[in-house]
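Bench notes, afternoon.
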Amino acid sequence: MAGSPRIHPPPLPLDSLAAELARLTGASDSLSVTARLLLEHSLASNTIASYMTKYNQFANFCHRVGQHPLAPTPTTILRYQAHMFESGRVHPRNWRPYLACINRAHDDFGLPAPARHRVVAAASRGALRLAEQQPRFSARPVRRPLPAPVAAAALSVASSAASPAASAAPLAVATATILMVRASSLVHVRPADVVFTPDGGVCITVTIHKTRLATSLVRSIPPASHMLVHWVALLRALVAAVPSGSPLFAFPGQSASAGLSSAVRSVLSAAGMAPPSGAVFSGHSCRGGGATAALAVGVSLPVVMGWGDWKSLTSVVRYIDPLCPPSPAAVALFGHLRRA
């Protein structure tokens, strides 16, 4: 850019992650190859992609204000927070990954993490308080747990589809609700991960991909209600129609989260349903909807946390609507988790 000051990147310390990866690249001995794989797999691929997208936004902002993205001052990050607040594109409660990716990039180069500065933390708290007073933030729809009757409606939509492949999207809505999994985990399920049991139930292995090591969750669902029997039958038809190595629930041209959210909207439209005023149902609502429905019909909180792979009470309470009343659909979908 004409007239812009020339910015030189800071020297990279020899013990940085980036320098270590550069040294290992091209090495042929087995230990070096394995060491490089260990570093490259320190984060899940979807986390890396998310961090890269968010960090590029910060780097573009730094370029506009004449700062190097690997040498920002606390004031630069404060101004970036002001930029995010003014744009209104991201609610302050969702700023954490936008700041974490900045710290991660600096950690990779062995540099101090600038977004951990006290000024940055104070600005984040201030943004939350200001957002409560701003109509542009408060008027936004709030994501709510997907009600169990919507999951039941998804099964009806799936059964009316012209082919098993066409039933995959609405069936994904019901499956994500029943298993209480994220969309990013649901898309890793393949036909080989689904085993139908002699009693008419199903056993599904779901691999959870997070920043920690991938964890395989095995969930066995008995044919405890007509609704679950119907769900198993639809799954059986889909498994038979999908090639063995392909994802069972694929969303062509969309990310997993966006694809499941689109499936939720299509189910609502086909079933003639709509979220309450001021609320929105998304793909992530399936996870909270399952937890809410299970709790409403008397499933204990430890069982809900174990079934949905929540590690802390603080995490699970963000998903649950404790005032949601029980429904026949909730009993049909989650009654098998209650203690006899």
